[in-house]
TrEMBL record, chain B:
Name listed for the protein in its UniProt record: Na+/H+ antiporter subunit E
Family: Belongs to the CPA3 antiporters (TC 2.A.63) subunit E family.
PANTHER family: NA(+)/H(+) ANTIPORTER SUBUNIT E1, NA(+)_H(+) ANTIPORTER SUBUNIT E1
Domain of life: Bacteria
Protein location: Cell membrane
Species classification: Bacteria, Pseudomonadati, Pseudomonadota, Gammaproteobacteria, Alteromonadales
Length: 121, 162
C-alpha cells in the first residue's frame, strides 16, 4: 500500500487534530499520576481521554475522507465511548466509596446522612 | 404501527448503526438494515422491563449537542486543573436531590454528570431520591446543584415527561 499525498490544507488539519488529541490523552495520563486521591484521579481519565480519542477520530475521518471515500464509521467509537466511560467511572467510584478509601483531608463531606450511601447495616 | 415498531427510536438507532458499521450506503444494505431494525426490537421487546419513551425527540437532539459542547469545556477545565499546582483543589462529596423519576432518566442524568465539568456520580441513595456526586474542585456547592438542575435535569424532565 502506498501513501497517498494529502492536499496541503488537509495535511495541516489532520496533523493538528491528531496532535491535539494526543496532547489531551497525555494530560489525562499526567492527571492520573498527579492528582492526590482515588476519587480525584477518576476525573482525569473519564474526561480528558474523551477529547483525546475524539481528536484522533476526527483526524482519521478527515484523512480517509480526503484520500479514499467518505468515511464515517469511526463515529461508532465515540458512541461506544460515551456509553461506556460514565459507567466504568461510576463503578470505580462506587467501589472506592464502599471500600472507604482515604480521601485528601480537604475533601468536604456534605452528605446529610452518609449512612444512606453505605452498605453497613 | 405499535405492533410492528414497538420502539421506533431503537429501530432508527439500529439502522443508523448498521449503516455506520458498513461505512457505505447502497439500496441493498438499507433494505437489509431496515429488516434488522424492525426484527431486533420485536424480538428483544419482551425483555424490556424499563418503560421509557422519548416524548420530545428534538429536545433530545438539542440535549445531545449541549452535552457535546459541555464535554469539550469540561475537558479544558480538567486539563487546567491537572496542570496547576495540585494543592489548590477543593474536592467535595455532594448530595444531589433528584426531581425526576424512572430508571432511564436517572441513568441518563447520572451519566451526564459523570461526563461534564469536574463531577462524577458515585452512588444513589437507598430510597433512590438523591445522587451522591464527587466534585473535583468546587467553591459553592449550592450553585453547582442549581446549575445541574436547570441545565440538565429540567431538560430531561421535559424530554421524558416524568
Amino acid at each position: 500500500m502506498n501513501m497517498t499525498e494529502l492536499p496541503g490544507w488537509a495535511d495541516w488539519l489532520v496533523s493538528s487534530l491528531i496532535i491535539i488529541g494526543a496532547l489531551f490523552a497525555l494530560i489525562g495520563s499526567v492527571g492520573l499520576a498527579r492528582l492526590p486521591d482515588f476519587m480525584a484521579r477518576l476525573h482525569a481519565p473519564t474526561k480528558s481521554t474523551t477529547l483525546g480519542v475524539g481528536g484522533v477520530i476526527l483526524g482519521s475521518i478527515v484523512y480517509f475522507s480526503v484520500t479514499a471515500t467518505f468515511s464515517w464509521h469511526e463515529l461508532l467509537i465515540t458512541i461506544f465511548l460515551f456509553l461506556t466511560a460514565p459507567i466504568s467511572a461510576h463503578l470505580l467510584a462506587k467501589a472506592g466509596l464502599h471500600l472507604e478509601l482515604k480521601r485528601v483531608e480537604n475533601t468536604r463531606d456534605l452528605r446529610a446522612q452518609p449512612n444512606q450511601y453505605s452498605d453497613e447495616d | 404501527m405499535n405492533k410492528i415498531l414497538p420502539a421506533p427510536f431503537l429501530s432508527l438507532f439500529l439502522l443508523v448503526f448498521w449503516l455506520l458499521l458498513q461505512n457505505t450506503i447502497t439500496p441493498g444494505l438499507v433494505v437489509l438494515g431496515a429488516i434488522l431494525a424492525v426484527a431486533i426490537p420485536l424480538y428483544t421487546n419482551r425483555g424490556r422491563d424499563f418503560p421509557a419513551t422519548i416524548r420530545k425527540p428534538f429536545k433530545a437532539i438539542e440535549y445531545f449537542f449541549l452535552l457535546l459542547v459541555d464535554i469539550l469545556i469540561s475537558n479544558l477545565n480538567i486539563a487546567a486543573i491537572i496542570l496547576m499546582p495540585s494543592r489548590r483543589i477543593k474536592p467535595a462529596l455532594i448530595e444531589y436531590p433528584l426531581d425526576i423519576v424512572g430508571e432511564v432518566p436517572i441513568t441518563v442524568l447520572a451519566s451526564t454528570i459523570s461526563l461534564t465539568p469536574g463531577t462524577i456520580t458515585a452512588e444513589i441513595r437507598r430510597d433512590g431520591r438523591a445522587l451522591m456526586i464527587h466534585a473535583l474542585n468546587v467553591d459553592d456547592h449550592e450553585k453547582l446543584i442549581a446549575s445541574i438542575k436547570q441545565r440538565y435535569e429540567m431538560r430531561l424532565k421535559e424530554i421524558f415527561k416524568c
